[in-house]
Fold these 4 entries.
Entry 1:
Amino acid sequence: MPALSRPRLLVCTDTYPPQVNGVSVVTSLSVVGLAARGWEVAVAAPRYPAGIRDAFAADAWRNGAGELLLLPSAPLPFYRDIRLSLPNAYAMAQLIDRHRPDLVHCATEFSIGWLGQAMARRRDLPVVTSYHTDFSRYTDAYGVPWLRPAVAAHLARFHRRARRTYTPSAPAAGDLRALGVRDVEVWGRGVDTARFHPRHRSEPLRSAYGRRDTFLFLHVGRMAAEKGVDVILSAFARARAQLPSGAAHLIVAGAGPRADTLRALGGDDVTFLGNLDREQILPRLYASADAFAFSSVTETLGLVILEAMASGLPVVATPAGGVADHLRDGINGIAVPALDADAMAQAMVALVLDRDRALTLGAGARETAEALDWSHELDRLDASYRSVLGERPEHARSGRRVAAGA
């Protein structure tokens, strides 16, 4: 079929700015980047409460979408930062009729993603999906391991219906293929290497957290059970006990349902900052730290790992899931066993006592990130979308136009 000069895309997602997490960041960057590459993009996403703090550039995430349909949502009782959207088939049908998409991308497996997929299939529209999170592994962290088979079955059904599924790591792609998902593409392993850069280092910012020679550890992420932030806090407490007073400080940035519990575990020389502006403050914080600590073993990517590496920070983490694609022990960080606070503490002490090693690993981290510039990933997504459209039979496409205009 002939190439479309202005193809139309509908993105259906259950998380979007101003909510802050890896999925909302990647999805909004994709919308803006695809609009710049000639796509006419509409987005269906949850409506968030008025006054929620926007960690993104003012309206930058809105500008890529020609239309932004915000559907009513309610907070999950046990995790109020996550909004559960109410399916609104009528509003979604109207959006499809107005926008007349050539392709529908369902970025999440919940109510909006599921509704978008169902309605696209009903209208014979090609659908692609994203697999950002292995929710089946979350069942262990939340104490309901018996739900894991049911969650895995839902994920398998959802992604098997897609023409193509995008996931940001090789291990995640393997998981999908094991579930019977056929067309899987590793995509989304990008980072803005200009925004997250060592040149943003700020000595005045560093001085707020200790002496001039205080070694600053940083963690950025959601305060949720599956992230294992308690392991980082325990490791830092053990490392601090082996170091002179004031030799190290831990900064934790992020919000979530376990924030109050984790703050109570913080102790001395630990600062909690909540969610931060991603355009100015967070890049300065990354660049002003000396090392990054990460303990989650459920990531398909771990976007904050790449942001830290782009900022020149050595990473102390477990090479599990998507993190395994990028963490190289002794080259850009230190690998530790899963959820092992003692091993992480030993790695922290080693970095504090050997600043030259920390600088060498940090340089290796920056080199890793430079090969993953986000603009290249957006070019790849543009080409991949167009290849999906090129695979579609012409008669089905013309039939879809009649249905959409009916």
Entry 2:
Amino acid sequence: MAAYNGQKYIADQIESILNQLYPTDELVVSMDFSTDQTEEIVLEYAKKDSRIHLITGPSKGVIKNFENAIAYTQNEIIFLADQDDFWLPGKVERVLKEFEDPDVQVVMHDASIVDENMEVKESSYFAYRHVRLGIKENILKNSYIGCCMAFKSSLKDCVIPFPKKIPMHDQWIGLIGELEGKNVLIPEVYLLYRRHEQNKTDMKHSGIRQMIKWRKDLFQEIEKYKQYKLIKDGKTME
């Protein structure tokens, strides 16, 4: 979890996560410097539950904050979590089932989009965003959303450090997962995706010039990764 000025909702999110964790699991919270009570709230939970690991964030934005959290993780499967959503029962168990296939790298489930009062605005994020797999498809129009994603820890060395020019970390993780193996979409809803005035990520489109630049930069980074993968896999370039 990446945390920053999230005192209003973070307690509910932490509880929804802890309710599904096993004794050997961990909740890594990377805490960027906040001006509210977010850190104090997390510290109180950490005193009661040793599975919570609070670490100091780099305070360089949400992408770097998630990179910091991911780098600290120790277990085999990494779930990403925003500070203001709510995990629904059965999420962890259902997602882990997909990783029984050794080729699966990234799993993403559906979510319902809700407002700050948990009133449902869109029952299916997948339907709302026309979510689909595919490298070309997700460079042109991103479907990957971190709060619904989990990935193998073996992917860590492939995705971090995040390239400086990528639009968002979740898009990069999803694309690299497709290059390294296969990704899976779970059509069931296992998260309430809360949208409110303080959200650090935006569902609105950026300006056309910015979108074109992001796609160009992302394409270049993917091409660089493909070259790296050829070398890593011991293959020669054509």
Entry 3:
Amino acid sequence: MKQIEGGICSVRGVSANGIKAEKMGIAVILAEGPAAGVFTQNKVTAAPVTLSKGVIDTHHRLSAVIVNSGNANAFTGDDGFLDAMEMASMLSENLDLDADTVAVASTGVIGRRLDISKIRELLPEVLAELGSTPECSQAAAKAIMTTDKAIKESAVELDCGVRIGAIAKGSGMIEPNMGTMLCFAYTDAKVPADVLDAALKVAVQKTFNMLVVDGDTSTNDMILLTSTCKSGIKPCMECLDDFQESLIYVFTELVKKMAKDGEGATKLIEARVVGAKKHEDARLAAKAIVRSPLVKTAIFGKDPNWGRIVAAAGYSGAELEQERLSLSLSGGEEKVELVDCGEISESFDLALLKKIMENYEIVITLDLNMGEEHATAWGCDLTYDYIRINAEYTT
């Protein structure tokens, strides 16, 4: 596997484009083939999620995706669903597609009617420049941004020649499962929808569902994975394992970019929990650490208050014994051992810990010393700017 340039447009059979007009953005991705999806678990579900989930569940394939930013089209009742249908219809009529295989996604403010006339006005401009260049992938990725400060895309080529590419948006309202995030992933492997579905669920559980910015679950979360089959390569069993790992890699790259770009974030936090008896124990502890407001604020303040980390693990619900815990922090090339099997480490260097806290990326490693299972979670610090951004979101 190697990283490649071009985002989703590096995948054979994918064309895309997008534009941003003030707070409104429109993106279109054209790619025909088997598809799978994972959607928000919020019981208040946005209209485009309902529509797109129906498309996936019924047809197990997609021909295109149309996305708007600036308005979530959530909690908008029957009118909102009609607007989502209108978006699919507009695209299908312009590109001569079956509207029943067009997915719709939205992101932005909840509870406000979508300005469908603005989408109708901007769509021809998007379609006029639809293409398969790296710039087209970036244009689509930029169009779906809300409070994001950076474009999020990633692509790889497997040793067998298959390619996987994805774009995403998301910097707030993230966790416990995904967040105000959209992700559109593509591959040119010749695989059916059920294989895509299985691979997607595994990859999401190990990546997007291990990301925490603020602990809120959005109404609009959506991840779609489509195969164009254009490589003509039908992966063997061994290559399918590589496909799974490569999909996880692509999503992990996006997760890290989302954590770095968390609303108001100044630091990326990576929590690695090892030595767990069960995988779920490692998962619970890792997410509790990156979710904890006290851990997040300590890291923002560069305060070496490491006791908050073990406290978070302790209330996480994971099976652990404090007498067995070992804890270390690292940043850059520096690492400090804080706890060794339940005892404060004799080599604990407070000055070194303070130096590590200055780093942009902080890695927390907690060893439960109870088994062989492990999990990693990602998050960001909690800052004054997070409060400001969300206090002024609609004003």
Entry 4:
Amino acid sequence: MHNGTLLAAVDLGSNSFRLEIGRFEHGQIQRSEYLKETVRQGNGLDAERNLSPEAMQRGWDCLARFGERLAGFRKGQVRAVATQTLREARNRDEFLLRAHEILGFPIDVISGREEARLIYQGVAHLLPQSDERRLVVDIGGRSTEMILGHGYEARVMESYRVGSVAWSMKYFADGQLTAKAFEGAEIAAKAVLDEALNAYPRLSWDQAYGSSGTVGAVSDVLEAGGWPAGQVTRDGLDWLLDKLLRAQRADRLRLEGMKDDRRAVIGGGVSILRAVFDLLGIDTLATAQGALRHGVLYDMLDREHVQTDLRAVSVQRLVEKFAVEAAQSQRVQKVACQLLRQLLGTQGPTQERQRLLLKLGWASSLHEIGCQISHSDYHKHGAYMLNNTDAPGFAQHELRRLGMLVLGHRGKLRKLDADFEDPDFVAQLMCLRLAVILCHARRDPDLKGLALQRGALPQKQFLLGCRSGWAQAFPQSAHLLREEVLAWEKTAWSLAVTQA
């Protein structure tokens, strides 16, 4: 990446939406601009876990403003991620479809553990280099992330469904700040977080850090009240609780350092923070400057290079964990990517071509992952595994797309709940299916004279050309290709096989 390149991260949190724009300079990202809006989308989930029309509209309105600021940015310069509220929302696709159009960039719904990993990356990159073992806690609107890490490596990551918005709605719904409400909220938070005792024992970390949201808001209030800057202590939390109880109601709070938009969710946030202190034996929580959005920015740098792209590491771990036959997966990968290069030629941005080849390569590596469960319908098992695994570096939609390619690499095409209007996906699927056919004998195929190209527009057609005598030399491959032609006839696309 060139020095001076602008990068942007959009964080669709449960309480606030944030836009961080940074300039890449000599391996570091320096803030250029930061925008934050309190959208409180987490308040808009009903009992059926559907976002209300009002909550969706608040989100769309905010993203329209962000989108105006991002006009002129290229796709590779922007990444938007959504967290717990959209992980939960049953009607999230309705929100995301329009949100993508309004913002102008795709939005990745990330898993809780992936959110935790990115939070740690953001925190670690904005802290001085150190050998200390770090505990990072981030209390968001509807989830709390905890991470143990060393340097830039997050080693233990978990996300818990407890957050300032959700807890404020449940235990402080009428705005009453009573001792009984705090007691109930803290007990409930400890019940959810109890398993963290085993994952994050006191002897496993040297320094605890709090990131973003609740921790930042509490730290600001404590500093304004005369407590040491940049940290939250047990005594400070006791002092703040006393102030909240004296106010009796959230709308009566008049605390220096507390922003207006924080009053409504401070009860839930403080009760969770006190529970975390008690459970993990924390005395002092240092306030970290880094957060999820910073982790997203630095992760964009890593994704530029295969050597540092964590997704490639995750794919390799899955290959090893489920004992995929390496020789066959590499063979299929080589053939599939060769066919896709023929299709893509030199048209379009180089970065986009590389992205399509990279993801096809991963799908090829994983296409037999389900064999460890059963060889019968292994493609279905593989797709299920990818749709339900935690793979660091991947957004949920990326895993679903890999799963769709794995599911579709053999058998009927009509079974796919896929977007056959997406020419890039169809091209990847075609190349993977052809590669599996050509490698059916589990040895390197003879590809001399084989060429794949698109038919003349506007027809949705692929043409596979073979050299003279190829079908006679490889009758089983030719038979499988004839069956493949029939399979594509049941879609909006077609495949024609010709022989010179």
